[in-house]
Amino acid sequence: MAFSVISRGLLRTSRELLERNMAVGAISMLNGYVDIEMHPSRSSRTISTSSQALIRQTPQYLQTPVPPNSTVTPSTGIYNKKVKNLKRQQKDDEESDSDSDSDDEYERKRQDLHKKYSQKGDTEFWRRKMRTLHRILDVNRDGVISFDDFKLLHKRFTDLGHLNEELSAEFLKVMEETWMEQFGEITPYNLVNAEQFMTDLHHRLNDEKMFKSVGRFLPYLFKAVDYDHSGYLDLDQYKLFFRCLGLSNEDAAISFAVIDKNGDGQLSLKEFVHLGRQYFLTEDETKISKMFWGPLIDH
């Protein structure tokens, strides 16, 4: 009797062990898709159906959990999740490279712009124009420019009698502000030679705020010689402008013939100021503004 009970227990245990081993083997086959490799002629649909049946028959604690929304790659048994992660990483790398390219392009454009901006006033042609202007502004012809020269220039144009007291005072104030912005303090000892003059103007040309105020005194020069208040200068009035600068009538005639582009014999205030400012700003040798202050010196 006892032997019979023991035998039935052993048989039950052996049957349970056999079922468990079969279930484990089935799960291993599913995980590796051994059946597909051994029998390639079978359709994936048939394998899938039988596999699902085996999984349903397998105890819950033996089933291998599969992440949601994931599939198994038949040939390798690797989750597509890894593939998605790899693609996401590649996309991130491409975006990173794209951002890097954008940064490089931005930096290149910024450097090109800075280079273009910082080169204003570096040509020999521009320096030649500034040496010409230095000679003109050296009214007392002592080789240097001081504020005394600015005051002499103011006096010459004011003495023509075509500026009223208010305009004359404004003119002098603008000359003072121009001197201090460009050369510093107004003292008898602040003397500016040609090289220093070019250096200071070069700095002003490349300073955004100072750049905008170049030639602020030009309208006063125009109004001083526009004795008929017509708003235009003819050749005789332009000769008067040149005489105040210490230049000859011949120089005035040559310059006027060049800058009177449309040949109507008149120069408006707008044209006068534009040409006077352009003289400071451009490095293009073809611009007619190069003759605004008379013929350029040779050296």
Give a topology summary.
Elements: H1 2-32, H2 34-38, H3 44-57, H4 80-118, H5 124-137, H6 147-158, H7 165-183, H8 194-205, H9 208-212, H10 218-225, E1 232-233, H11 235-244, H12 249-259, E2 267-268, H13 269-281
Antiparallel strand pairs: 1-2
Helix pairs in contact: 1-3, 5-8, 6-7, 10-11, 10-13, 11-12
Protein name: Sarcoplasmic calcium-binding protein
GO molecular function, one term: calcium ion binding
Keywords: Calcium
- Would you list the SSEs in sequence order as H and E? HHHHHHHHHHEHHEH
The CATH superfamily label of the domain at 120-291 reads EF-hand
Global Rg: 46 Å
Strand order of the largest sheet: 1-2
Strands, count: 2
Which blocks of ≥5 consecutive residues have pLDDT under 50?
Answer: 1-7, 26-56, 70-79
Number of helices: 13
- How far is the N terminus from the C terminus? 134 Å
Shape: globular
Top CATH class of the domain at 120-291: Mainly Alpha
Domain EF-hand: 125-160, 247-282
Organism: Musca domestica
InterPro entries: CML21-like, EF-hand-dom_pair, EF_Hand_1_Ca_BS, EF_hand_dom
Region (Disordered): 58-114
